[in-house]
Design goal:
289 residues, 11 helices, 5-stranded mixed β-barrel, alpha/beta, Spore Coat Polysaccharide Biosynthesis Protein SpsA, Chain A
């Protein structure tokens, strides 16, 4: 089975960034000159994804506009200014994939956007990436996950090894057997277990390959902590009855831009790496620290 569809949930309110996110999606916050979600889309496409399903809400129209072709006014402005290369670069954005947008409907929780995409997924396996996290790695995160799916043809979770106690309050953790070579057979997926109850040091970050087997479980799911519907809790039930594997992601850097501090770290890190401004920005940082 070839995976060609990806779901990117992007319907959250971004309350940790208010008032900035009152009218601007957190997924559109700039990382130097590209919004966060573009890094996520590029990751998915690197793995062979052709159809990008973005689950949004009523204040996320700018995401749709970003992945559309530039307006005629903008094209004229760039051409009149002799900025043909910039125009070519932004025109490529609309050609990266087939973009489909779905409004999120239903109760709060990260399982809901997956259910909202069901009519587009149908009977196909699909990739899930969150809209505010991305990874720098070679091969890319999506390529590594696709390679694991090609081998096992079942649900694949993407994880990182971490011994930080605070991470046990943010991620789901794998309970299972380490098969070696960065692959685990998952028996349970424990959501936010806390430092005393973490079953391993493999935390599942933003990356899943799911099969349609997940949908009946989502249909039967009961609300979890705080009344939310958690995707990892449905995957936990799936792992107890079906084959589920997790991979230890080989990566250079993982960026979670979901809070202000981590977002600012991401901006600084990517600005330093930027070919156009990196050296000058490093000199500036030295002058203010």
């Amino acid at each position: 089975m070839k995976i060609t569809k990806a779901v990117i949930p992007a319907a959250g309110f971004g309350t940790r960034f208010l008032p900035q996110t009152k009218a601007m999606p957190k997924e559109m916050l700039p990382i130097v000159d590209k919004p966060v979600i573009q890094y996520v889309v590029e990751d998915a496409i690197s793995g062979g994804i052709e159809d990008i399903i973005i689950v949004t809400n009523s204040i996320k129209r700018s995401i749709e506009d970003h992945f559309d072709y530039p307006s005629e006014d903008l094209k004229k402005n760039l051409l009149d200014g002799g900025k043909e290369q910039i125009l070519a670069n932004i025109e490529k954005i609309g050609d990266m994939a087939n973009f489909v947008y779905v409004r999120q409907k239903g109760p709060y929780g990260n399982a809901t956007p997956i259910k909202c995409s069901r009519h587009l997924i149908q009977n196909d396996p699909f990739l899930v990436l969150w809209g505010d996290e991305f990874v720098l790695s070679t091969p890319s995160r999506s390529q590594q996950m696709m390679a694991a799916f090609d081998k096992y043809q079942t649900t694949i979770l993407c994880g990182i090894i971490t011994n930080k106690p605070e991470d046990t309050k943010k991620y789901g953790y794998v309970q299972g057997k380490n098969l070696g070579n960065g692959v685990w057979k998952v028996d349970r997926l424990i959501e936010k277990p806390g430092p005393e109850n973490a079953p391993s040091n493999l935390a599942i970050i933003s990356g899943y390959i799911l099969t349609p087997d997940i949908f009946p479980l989502l249909d039967q799911q009961k609300p979890g902590t705080g009344g939310e519907y958690y995707l990892p809790e449905a995957i936990d039930i799936l792992a107890q009855n079906s084959n589920v594997y997790a991979i230890e992601l080989e990566y250079e850097k993982y960026f979670d831009t979901g809070n202000k501090l981590e977002y600012m770290k991401t901006v600084v890190e990517m600005a330093i790496r930027n070919e156009e401004i990196g050296d000058a920005f490093k000199e500036y940082l030295k002058s203010v620290i």
